[in-house]
Specification:
Length: 729
C-alpha cells in the first residue's frame, strides 16, 4: 500500500491523497494530539514493511472517495477513553448525524463496519488507515510541531500574557473550523459569519470577537448606550452595577468618556455659560403647594442659589436648522422661523423655585409637545420675580432683540427672519410683561377690563393694547414695569391653553364643593360618593383632614385626570338631574377640545364660549322659598381672569394663530421638562464625578444633558439591535 501527496496540508485544507489508486479527499476538522508515551497507541504492523502509525486523540476528519453513486463522504473520529484505549467512530448520512459505527479494535474494523452497513452483501474491504488518513504525513508533522496538550502547562500556572496568547490561538483555530464546516450546513450564498464565541477556562471567561473592528460602528454603539442611559436617566452607580452583571455592556468608563466627548463637541456648537445672579435673596415661604418635596433635592437646589446657566438662542437655532430643512419643516426659499419663548418655575420645597426659560420651534408641530424639543436657554434656582428675571435674562434679551431686528444668517448664507412668540402660565407672563397680579383691579394684560366688568356679558373685550403703549412713559393701567421682552408683539403673548383648562377646572370644582358645604352636605358620606365616582372613571382621588387647619383637603389632580373628570364625572351622584344638567361640565370640555384644534373657526368658537358663559351665569328664577323658585348657577363675581381670557381673547388668538393650533402654545412640555430635570439631576446619585463646578453644578449637568439630546437627534444612533435566536446545547 503506497501513498503520494497530491496537495500539502495545512496550506490546503481540504487536501488530496492517492492511496492504492484511490483518491481520498481529507478535510481536517480537529488535528488532535498524540497522548503521552505511556498512553499512546499505534496501528497494527503492516504486513509488508511492519509500518505502524501513531493514533492521535481528539481527532476529527471528513473523508471522501469514489465517484457518482459510489461516492462516500463520512466523518471519522478518534477519541481515547478513560482506560487509555482509542475508540474509532464513523458518522454518516444527514449531516453526519443519522448513523454512527464504532470499534475499539482498529480503524479498519470501523471502516468495514461502515461499508457493511451501506451494503451488507459486499465482499470489499477498506483500509482504516486510509479512511482515517492516519498515514497523512503532513498532518502528522503538524501535530509533532505544535505543543501537544500532554506537554501544556496547566492553565493556572501560566502568566496572564500566556493565558491570553493560548486562548487567542484557540479562538483563531475555532474560526478555521467554522469556515471549514459551514458548507456542510449552509448554502454558499448564505454567507454565514462567525461573530463571537464565549468559553471558560478554570473560571476565567473569554469572549472572542471575529468582526472587523469598525470605529464608526463602535462609536455608534457607545452613543446608543449613552443615549439610553441619559433618557432613563440611569445613575452612574446603577449602570456600573448593571455592567458588572452583563460583561458585554460597555464599561462605565467608556460611557463616561463618550459623554465627555459629546459634551466637548457640543460645547463648540452650543456653548454653556454660567451667570452670576446679583442680589438673589431667598424667597419668603411659597404660598403654593410644593411641586417637589424630596429633602435631598431641596438641599441640592439650595446649594446653587445665585448661579444661572445660559445657552444662546442663535446657537440652538443654527444647530437645529439643517435638520428642520431636511424634514421640510423650514423652507430656505421662505426663510422664516417662528420661535416660541416660554418660562416655568417649579416649587422645590417651600423656599425656592427652579426656574427655566426655553425656546422651541412652532413650525415643528410634530415635536412641539415633546419636552426635549423645548430647548433651555436660561436655568436657575432662586426666586421667580421681575428683578431676578430682569437680571438673569439680560444677555438673552439683548440677543433676542438682535435676532428680531437683524435676523439669523446660517452657514449657507441664508438669512432667516425670526418671528417671536411667548407662552406661559399667567404668573410668569405677567412678570415678563411687568404687569399686575391676576387679583388686581386691572388684571388682564390684553385689554382694559377691570374686576367690576369681568362678569359683564354685554361687553366684549378685545386686545386693545400694544407693545408701544406698554413701553411708553405713560403705559396703560396695570403695567407697573417695563416689559422684559418688548421685541415680542403683545398679540404674540398667547395664553397657555393647558393652564386655561386647569385653572377654570379648579374654579368650577371649588364651586361644586362650596355648594355642597352651603347645603351642609359636605360630610363623610358625600366625600365617599365623590371618591367612588372618581374611582369609577379611573381617577385616583381622596380626601384627608389637614392636621393644622382641621379642614378637609383633597388630591390635586394633574391635567390628564382633570380632563377625564371634565368628560366623564356624573354630577347626578351629587345633585338632582335638573341641577346636574345645569352644571354641565361636558360643555366646557367640548370648548376646551375645540380651542386646541387648528381647524377651529374663531367666530364659531366665540359664539360657543359666550353660550357657555351664559350657562355659567344662569340666574335665579322666581322668589326664594317659593314653589316657582329655580336656583341659578353662579354669579359674575365667580368669573376668574382665565375665564375672561377664554371668553374674550381666545377667539382672537385662534384667528391670529389658529394655523398652529393653540395646542402648539401648551406649556405642558416645558413643565414636564422642569419637573423631570429637577427630580433627576439634583439627586446626589446622578452626579457624574469630575472636578470643581462641573462636578457640583447640576445646572451644568442639565444643560450638558440637553446638548447631548440635541446631538443624538442629529446622529444615526440606533435604539435596538436584532435579537438573536438562542439555542441550549
Amino acid at each position: 500500500m503506497s501513498s503520494s501527496n497530491q496537495s500539502k496540508y495545512p496550506e490546503n485544507n481540504p487536501f488530496l491523497l492517492k492511496q492504492n489508486n484511490t483518491n481520498y479527499t481529507y478535510t481536517i476538522i480537529k488535528e488532535g494530539f498524540y497522548p503521552s508515551k505511556n498512553i499512546i497507541c499505534y496501528t497494527s504492523a503492516r504486513s509488508r514493511n511492519g509500518t505502524q502509525f501513531k493514533i492521535p486523540n481528539k481527532y476529527l476528519v471528513q473523508t471522501s472517495w469514489g465517484r457518482g453513486n459510489l461516492r462516500h463522504t463520512i466523518k471519522c473520529e478518534i477519541e481515547y477513553e478513560l482506560d487509555g484505549q482509542p475508540v474509532f467512530r464513523i458518522w454518516f448520512e444527514k449531516n453526519f448525524q443519522q448513523y454512527v459505527v464504532e470499534s475499539k479494535e482498529s480503524p479498519t474494523k470501523a471502516a468495514n463496519e461502515y461499508l457493511r452497513s451501506k451494503n451488507p452483501n459486499t465482499h470489499a474491504n477498506l483500509s482504516g488507515i486510509h479512511v482515517f488518513g492516519l498515514n497523512a504525513t503532513d498532518v502528522e508533522k503538524e501535530r509533532e510541531k505544535k505543543n501537544h496538550s500532554h506537554s501544556f502547562k496547566p492553565f493556572n500556572m501560566l502568566s496572564e500574557s500566556m493565558k491570553t496568547k493560548r486562548s487567542r490561538s484557540f479562538s483563531i483555530h475555532m474560526d478555521t473550523i467554522f469556515q471549514n464546516e459551514t458548507l456542510n450546513f449552509y448554502n454558499s450564498s448564505d454567507q454565514p459569519v462567525l461573530q463571537e464565541i464565549r468559553f471558560n477556562v478554570q473560571n476565567k471567561n473569554y469572549l472572542a470577537n471575529y468582526c472587523d473592528k469598525n470605529e464608526k460602528k463602535e462609536n455608534q454603539r457607545i452613543d446608543a448606550f449613552t443615549k439610553i442611559i441619559d433618557q432613563g436617566p440611569i445613575s452612574r452607580d446603577a449602570y456600573r452595577n448593571l455592567a458588572a452583571l452583563q460583561p458585554e455592556l460597555p464599561r462605565d468608563r467608556v460611557i463616561l468618556n463618550a459623554r465627555k466627548r459629546i459634551n466637548e463637541e457640543m460645547s463648540q456648537k452650543i456653548p454653556i455659560s454660567i451667570l452670576n445672579i446679583k442680589h438673589t435673596p431667598l424667597a419668603s415661604t411659597i404660598s403654593e403647594a410644593p411641586d417637589i418635596e424630596d429633602q435631598e433635592i431641596v438641599e441640592e437646589v439650595l446649594q446653587y442659589i445665585g448661579k444661572a446657566g445660559y445657552r444662546h438662542i442663535s446657537d440652538i437655532l443654527l444647530f437645529v436648522i439643517p435638520d428642520l430643512v431636511n424634514r421640510n419643516i423650514l423652507n430656505p426659499n421662505d426663510p422664516i422661523i417662528h420661535v416660541r419663548i416660554s418660562g416655568d418655575g417649579r416649587n422645590v420645597g417651600r423656599k425656592v423655585k427652579h426656574v427655566m426659560v426655553t425656546c422651541t420651534i412652532l413650525d415643528d408641530i410634530l415635536n412641539i409637545h415633546k419636552a426635549d424639543f423645548h430647548y433651555t436657554t436660561i436655568l436657575y434656582p432662586g426666586v421667580e420675580n421681575y428683578e431676578t428675571l430682569q437680571n438673569v435674562m439680560e444677555p438673552m434679551i439683548s440677543e433676542l432683540h438682535n435676532l428680531v431686528i437683524n435676523g439669523l444668517i446660517d452657514p449657507n448664507k441664508t438669512k432667516w427672519k425670526i418671528e417671536p412668540y411667548f407662552s406661559s402660565d399667567w404668573k410668569f407672563m405677567a412678570i415678563i410683561l411687568g404687569f399686575n397680579a391676576a387679583n388686581a383691579n386691572y388684571f388682564c394684560p390684553c385689554c382694559m377690563c377691570t374686576k367690576k366688568d369681568i362678569g359683564n356679558r354685554d361687553k366684549i373685550h378685545k386686545i386693545e393694547k400694544n407693545m408701544n403703549q406698554i413701553q411708553s412713559s405713560k403705559p396703560p393701567p396695570g403695567h407697573l414695569k417695563a416689559p422684559l421682552l418688548p421685541m415680542i408683539p403683545l398679540d404674540h403673548y398667547v395664553p397657555d391653553e393647558l393652564h386655561v383648562m386647569l385653572r377654570i377646572w379648579d374654579r368650577m370644582w371649588a364651586l361644586v364643593i362650596q355648594e355642597l358645604k352651603s347645603e351642609n352636605r359636605f360630610d363623610d358620606n358625600i366625600r365617599r360618593i365623590i371618591s367612588v365616582e372618581m374611582q369609577r372613571i379611573s381617577v385616583r382621588f381622596h380626601f384627608w383632614q389637614d392636621h393644622d387647619t382641621q379642614s378637609r383637603s383633597y388630591t390635586s389632580l394633574m391635567g390628564g385626570d382633570k380632563e377625564i373628570v371634565l368628560q366623564n364625572f356624573n354630577f347626578e351622584v351629587l345633585f338632582n338631574i335638573e341641577r346636574a344638567n345645569l352644571i354641565k361640565w361636558r360643555d366646557f370640555y367640548v370648548l376646551y377640545k375645540s380651542m386646541k384644534e387648528p381647524e377651529t373657526d374663531s367666530a364659531l368658537f366665540a359664539i360657543q364660549a359666550k353660550k357657555w358663559l351664559d350657562l355659567f351665569l344662569t340666574p335665579y328664577q322666581g322668589e326664594p322659598n317659593t314653589i316657582s323658585f329655580k336656583k341659578g348657577l353662579y354669579r359674575p363675581k365667580d368669573i376668574t381672569p382665565y375665564m375672561h381670557v377664554l371668553i374674550n381673547h381666545i377667539p382672537e388668538f385662534i384667528k391670529l394663530h389658529g394655523h398652529f393650533g393653540l395646542a402648539a402654545f401648551s406649556c405642558a412640555g416645558v413643565e414636564k421638562k422642569n419637573h423631570d430635570q429637577v427630580s433627576a439631576f439634583f439627586r446626589k446619585t446622578m452626579k457624574d464625578g469630575g472636578k470643581g463646578i462641573e462636578r457640583k453644578s447640576a445646572i451644568f449637568e442639565i444643560l450638558y444633558y440637553e446638548n447631548r439630546f440635541m446631538y443624538f437627534t442629529q446622529q444615526s444612533t440606533f435604539d435596538s439591535v436584532l435579537k438573536p435566536q438562542y439555542f441550549q446545547i
